[in-house]
Amino acid sequence: MGDDEWRGLAALVYLPFMLQTPPFRWVPRELHSTALLREVYYNPYRFVPFPAAWRTSDVLGVARAVYDSNDFGQMPVLGDALEDAGCDSAEILNHCRHAPAESHARGCWVLDRILKRGQNRG
């Protein structure tokens, strides 16, 4: 998806919250982040399988540590643990290894898939 499509998706995602929130509490439009949407939802039109076999004790341990500490600098370590567990998904491994630590956030689609949190259970 290109930036224009992500901007349109961002508007749709934020609209229900804006309609239910008093105007003085609205998040300014300049803080609506397409990068954050990509971090949380990846690509809503593409399902990335996540077999249970990839949830080894090492993968779960690193994922919990990253999530609990909010230290996303450890995401490349998680990528290595996933690869050791048999993960061959380029999307997942690239997300862990090549996205800058500051681009990650709680709700990260990879962490949520591993830890079975939120809408990314699977």
What is this entry, summarized?
The chain is mainly α.
Number of alpha- plus pi-helical segments: 6
What is the β-strand count? 0
- Overall tally of structural domains: 2
Rg over C-alpha atoms, rounded to the nearest angstrom:
16 Å
Tell me the strand percentage band. Answer: under 5%
Largest sheet: none
The helix-and-strand class reads: mainly alpha
Task: Average the pLDDT over all residues and give the rounded result.
Answer: 81
Describe the protein in words.
The structure is a single chain. This protein has two domains: 3-32, no CATH class; 52-120, no CATH class. The longest helix has 18 residues, at 3-20. The protein has 122 residues and is mainly α. The chain has helices at residues 3-20, 34-41, 57-69, 75-84, 90-98, 109-115. Helix content is 53%, strand content 0%. α3 packs antiparallel against α4 (75-84) and α4 packs antiparallel against α5 (90-98).
